Each structure stands twice: as C-alpha cells, then as structure tokens.
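ugh ok fine here u go
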Amino acid sequence: MPRIITSTKRNLIARLLAGGMGYREIVRRTHVSRGTVSTIAAERREEVPEPMRSAVSEWLQPIVTVPKYKCVGCGFDVVVRPCLVCKARAAKRRR
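structure:
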C-alpha cells in the first residue's frame, strides 16, 4: 500500500526542486521514491501560469543572434570570416 506523504514533506520537496537540487539528492534527504519526487516536480510545472512561461521562455532566448556562414574553403558553418581553420591551413602552406 502506498504511503501518503505529509504536506510539510511535499512542500519541502517542492522547495528543494525550486532550489535546483537533483532528484537523487532529494530522495536521499527526504526518504521518498524518485517517482514521488518526479510527480511533485510535474505538479509544480503545471502550476506555472502560461503568461509566466512565455515570459521566461522569451527571457531565455539569445539577445543577439549571430549569423552563420558557410566557409567557401571547407564548407563548415562559421561565424567569423574567413574561416580560422582555412586561414591556418593557408598559413601552413605558405611556410
């Protein structure tokens, strides 16, 4: 028969999850199963209102997007032109 955890322990687990502690460490400290911790984590995710989720996801987007280019010499996606690999190979050939 499954044991019922107290609301105090449930709140403790929720606080530990919010603090970024891993599931296994929470299991070790609170003596509950990983399934219980996972269930509480899923419940916490459902509690976050949709406007807050979108605000957080917008905040996590990169502020500046850097365009990538295809290097003419080697075909790699590069951010800086000329490709540093091709530039080093050319310098080595010149020696």
